[in-house]
Specification:
The structure holds 2 protein chains of 2 kinds. Helices cover 44% and strands 7% of the residues of chain A. In chain A, the strands form 2 sheets. A two-stranded antiparallel sheet of chain A has the order 1-2. Chain A has a two-stranded antiparallel sheet with strand order 3-4. Chain A is mostly helical. Chain A contains 6 helices and 4 strands; from the N terminus they run H-H-H-H-E-E-E-H-H-E. Chain A has 2 domains: 92 residues, Winged helix-like DNA-binding domain superfamily/Winged helix DNA-binding domain (Arc Repressor Mutant, subunit A, Orthogonal Bundle), CATH 1.10.10; 49 residues, no CATH class. The longest helix of chain A is centred in the last third of the chain and has 20 residues. In chain A, helix 2 crosses helix 4. Chain B folds into 2 domains: 203 residues, P-loop containing nucleotide triphosphate hydrolases (Rossmann fold), CATH 3.40.50.300; 85 residues, Alpha-Beta Plaits (2-Layer Sandwich). The two termini of chain B are 25 Å apart. By secondary structure, chain B is of the alpha/beta class. Chain B is elongated and about 70 Å long. In chain B, strand 4 and strand 5 form a beta hairpin. Chain B has 11 helices and 14 strands. Helices cover 34% and strands 29% of the residues of chain B. The chains are: A mainly alpha, B alpha/beta. At the A-B interface, helix 3 and helix 4 of A face helix 4, helix 6 and helix 7 of B.
């Protein structure tokens, strides 16, 4: 895993070795580097850990087609200085995306999108929707109101994910060739 | 390497112990938050670490064993004190010159570029700058010394929300660029959640909790369930803080790293850093319990989370 080196500047910087010549432009935006198609935002009230918010925003952008394979994710330094968050948080998010096969670090360049997110096929969605509607009918007949249904669903979903082993996304990544999302 | 390491570190003013038997090791590469109620000893710990005061007992070393206050230590540390100390009547340019002449290492080019980027005029008197600009100037002077450890005492206290954001963004950028380690004290817990990946909680002059934020969050959770069963439940778990309603109770518990079984009829929720800190602040005695130190004895998947002195 060389995301760290790929995105956070000279690898030897932690040892206190810094060349004086490179220092002038250190605090300026990356010179000439292609900007990422997306910008991150944070919702402090969501209760979702910061790194996970970044991961989810990348996934969301992949699903909606804002990001395509080959696109660059925002540079760690840019994310850090626009959101005022710990660089390790960004690195953790990018590692997570790497583990999911969605992005990969390129040494000295940054982190790039590797795959699109596969979507569930339409017929399957329709069937899922039908069975969910049937369940909603049962819940309604049992006297649950909207908030009750949401609470029950949320709690059941959490149980389900916990039992399955962590909230990690199981949605598979689709390789470079497939343009699943337009 | 530990950027700060203390052993039995104590400081007494007259008959009052400002810091008592503080044993602590903060590893390099972290943004460590130092939190605790007023008078807990945060500033004392910082002043001891940077060598501004001498301990009554115990030792403090920084940056991998350099004695606090020694020239070797001072070269690697930059400290910004609570009230953003600047000479209000000096111009920004004079502040730069002064700092350059008082330090063995000072990157004038970096400082000027940074101030230019921030739009801080060099001929303006420091006292005439806005609060946010003064904080940025103090930070620039500190960073231009190219420290390996940056110590910030309540850097956000006097700043408006925008200036706070910009200040922390500048600190985080320095972390990303140079890998500088940071120790900062603050009361703004929500702000810390975004930036800190290491937590040191002081209470009554002692270290109550210390560890990597991720590990601490994994080691704690909130259990919600019927109050009637709360006592039985609390008996089997190490509860940090409990809130009981007539019917429903919330227990913030230490789980020792593994999720562990949730008692039937109870619901488990992850904790936020803010919730965790508040719980410990409300229970100053919680460290006297077999605190997170006990977690270390249990098999843990993730590193060493904690260190507690009692």
């Amino acid at each position: 895993m060389d995301i760290d080196k790929a995105v956070s500047g000279p690898p030897d910087s932690r040892a206190g070795v810094s060349s004086p010549g490179a220092e002038g432009d250190r605090s300026l935006p990356a010179p000439g580097g292609a900007a990422s198609p997306i910008e991150f935002r944070l919702d402090a009230a969501s209760g979702v850990p910061t790194y996970l918010q970044l991961v989810q925003q990348v996934e969301h952008a992949l699903r909606l087609g804002y990001l395509k394979p080959g696109d660059q994710l925002p540079k760690v330094r840019d994310v850090v200085s626009s959101l005022a968050i710990n660089p390790n948080t960004v690195l953790k998010a990018y590692r997570e995306l790497d583990n999911k096969g969605l992005a990969a670090g390129r040494p000295g360049q940054g982190t790039f999108v590797q795959a699109t997110l596969g979507q569930v096929a339409l017929p399957e969605l329709t069937a899922l929707r039908r069975s969910l509607l049937a369940w909603l009918g049962t819940a309604d007949a049992a006297g649950l109101d909207e908030d009750g249904i949401v609470a029950l669903f949320t709690s059941a979903l959490r149980d389900f994910l916990e039992r399955r082993g962590g909230p990690a996304d199981r949605r598979g990544a689709v390789g470079d060739g497939t343009e699943g999302v337009a | 390497m530990n950027v700060i390491e203390t052993s039995g570190l104590s400081k007494r003013y007259g008959r009052t112990w400002a810091l008592r038997e503080c044993t602590l090791a903060v590893p390099a590469g972290h943004v460590a938050a130092l939190v605790g109620p007023n008078g807990a000893g945060k500033t004392t710990l910082m002043h001891l670490s940077v060598g501004l005061i001498a301990p009554s007992a115990g030792t403090a070393t920084v940056l991998g064993g350099r004695p606090a206050g020694s020239p070797a230590a001072l070269d690697g540390i930059a400290f910004v004190a609570q009230d953003t100390p600047l000479y209000k009547n000096l111009s920004v340019a004079s502040m730069l010159r002064l700092t350059r002449n008082l330090n063995r290492r000072f990157d004038q080019g970096y400082a000027q570029a940074r101030l230019g980027e921030l739009g801080i005029p060099l001929d303006r008197k420091a006292g005439k700058l806005s609060g946010g600009q003064q904080a940025q100037l103090a930070l620039t002077l500190a960073l231009a010394r190219r420290p390996r450890l940056l110590v910030l005492d309540e850097p956000l206290a006097m700043l408006d929300p925008l200036a706070r954001h910009d200040f922390m963004a500048a600190v985080m950028a320095a972390v990303a660029d140079d890998g500088v380690s940071v120790l900062l004290s603050s009361h703004v817990l929500a702000e810390l959640e975004r930036v800190a990946d290491y937590l040191v909680l002081l209470s009554g002059g002692r270290v109550q909790v210390a560890g990597e934020v991720d590990d601490l969050l994994t080691c704690h959770r909130v259990l919600t369930g019927p109050t009637a069963e709360a006592d039985a439940c609390a008996g089997r778990l190490s509860v940090v803080h409990a809130r009981r309603g007539e019917a429903q109770a919330h227990l913030l518990v230490r789980t020792g790293g593994t999720a562990g079984p949730v008692p039937p009829g109870w619901e488990a929720h992850p904790v936020s850093l803010e919730e965790l800190v508040m719980a410990y602040l409300r229970e100053p005695g919680a460290a006297a319990l077999p605190g997170p130190a006990r977690a270390r004895a249990l098999p843990l998947e993730t590193g060493e989370p904690t260190e507690v002195t009692r």
